[in-house]
Inverse folding.
């Protein structure tokens, strides 16, 4: 080890090149020891882990020195009555925010007592939007017209790069001489960003060759990936999913210590009016909390929490209770690829019965989306109830947070 650390110190060996000379586990250890010597900081806890380093160092993380552990709790059981998710589930929630799991757990209890959350997938399609440079406004229109009349050809080009992804549509947006082509794919059980990026590159080559408009960037930000965007809120991205539940007056009083009218008013003034006044792209109480905790636990890309938390919570009052629903138009989730193969995350997916590819393909990713939506609903109910009953601060104080 000392020899390698000396070479790293001299600059004759680069950190990223260690795996070329050492097995992954040993390379990780040497790299960590080097960082400890340079920084003077002990990283013993970072160096304690149970996941398969050979796989992770090869597929998930460069310059790896260890792992960071996040506490994992469960909330549930949560009954879900979806098209793909049907039954009771314990939600794995990875978080360091005290009171979050307890809050979601209370919402799960209310939903399960009410008979379960109804969940449905509304749309399913991952996007990538290359941008092309036209010579003029008339040329830009010509490019857009060509795309509109050659969708089948574009689809064949894109699908030639994958045996799993299926081309859905191409929608153009022209801004001056910039032409954006938002390509959409059914990515089955994969979250699918790598798949659609490779397919979009092939499609972009065809568009550029046929129209004479050079490709400027394979991602032109109209996708829109890992950023809050109205286009995703309106058109959807990834799995667009809805979950709702009817709560009667007795259950609301028993679980949340409040009443239907007060919960509805909190939602209207906080989630709808307050969010509108703030110019928010999310109209919800705490969707990001549940999305982030489940994403980390289940090997999803945490950066997609930015999109996944653009949820809208609605409350419809009725005779004897209310119907609460959450709509997540942009939930990029998958059960194969990315971080889903990391050992601890794979166990969490198995806990939900969605590890690996589904039968038919896409069933597991859609099941996961329905479960996440139901979990978000549980979180929304609990926080709305706490606010309506004026219990939020008291709950945090009692839990010592």
């Amino acid at each position: 080890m000392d020899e390698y650390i000396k070479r790293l110190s001299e600059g004759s060996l680069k950190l990223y090149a260690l795996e070329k000379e050492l097995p992954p586990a040993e390379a990780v250890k040497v790299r960590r020891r080097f960082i400890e010597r340079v920084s003077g900081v002990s990283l013993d806890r970072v160096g304690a882990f149970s996941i398969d380093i050979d796989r992770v160092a090869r597929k998930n993380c460069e310059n790896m020195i260890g792992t960071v552990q996040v506490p994992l709790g469960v909330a549930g059981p949560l009954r879900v009555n979806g098209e793909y998710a049907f039954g009771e589930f314990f939600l794995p929630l990875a978080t360091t925010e005290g009171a979050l799991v307890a809050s979601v757990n209370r919402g799960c209890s209310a939903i399960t007592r009410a008979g379960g959350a109804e969940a449905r997938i509304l749309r399913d399609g991952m996007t990538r939007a290359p941008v092309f440079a036209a010579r003029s406004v008339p040329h830009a229109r010509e490019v857009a017209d060509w795309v509109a009349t050659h969708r089948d050809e574009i689809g064949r080009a894109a699908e030639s790069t994958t045996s799993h992804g299926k081309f859905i549509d191409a929608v153009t947006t022209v801004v001056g001489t910039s032409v954006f082509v938002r390509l959409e794919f059914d990515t089955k059980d994969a979250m699918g960003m790598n798949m659609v990026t490779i397919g979009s590159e092939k499609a972009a080559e065809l568009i550029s060759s046929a129209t004479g408009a050079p490709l400027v960037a394979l991602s032109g930000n109209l996708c829109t990936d890992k950023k809050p965007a109205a286009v995703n809120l309106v058109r959807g991205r990834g799995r667009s999913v809805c979950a709702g539940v009817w709560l009667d007056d007795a259950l609301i009083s028993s679980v949340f210590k409040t009443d239907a009218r007060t919960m509805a008013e909190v939602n209207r003034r906080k989630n709808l009016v307050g969010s509108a006044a703030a110019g928010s792209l999310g109209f919800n109480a705490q969707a990001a909390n549940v999305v982030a905790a489940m994403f980390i636990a289940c090997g999803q890309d945490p950066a997609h929490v930015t999109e996944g938390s653009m949820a809208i919570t609605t409350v419809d009052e009725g005779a004897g209770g209310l119907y609460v629903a959450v709509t997540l138009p942009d939930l990029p989730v998958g059960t194969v690829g990315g971080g889903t193969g990391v050992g601890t995350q794979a166990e969490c997916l198995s806990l939900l019965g969605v590890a690996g590819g589904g039968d038919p393909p896409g069933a597991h990713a859609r099941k996961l989306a329905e479960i996440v939506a139901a979990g978000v609903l549980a979180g929304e109910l609990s926080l709305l109830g706490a606010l309506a009953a004026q219990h939020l601060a008291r709950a945090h104080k009692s839990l010592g947070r």
Notes: The beta strands are 72-82, 86-94, 117-128, 131-133, 166-175, 178-186, 215-217, 237-248, 312-318, 321-331. The first strand starts at residue 72 and ends at 82.
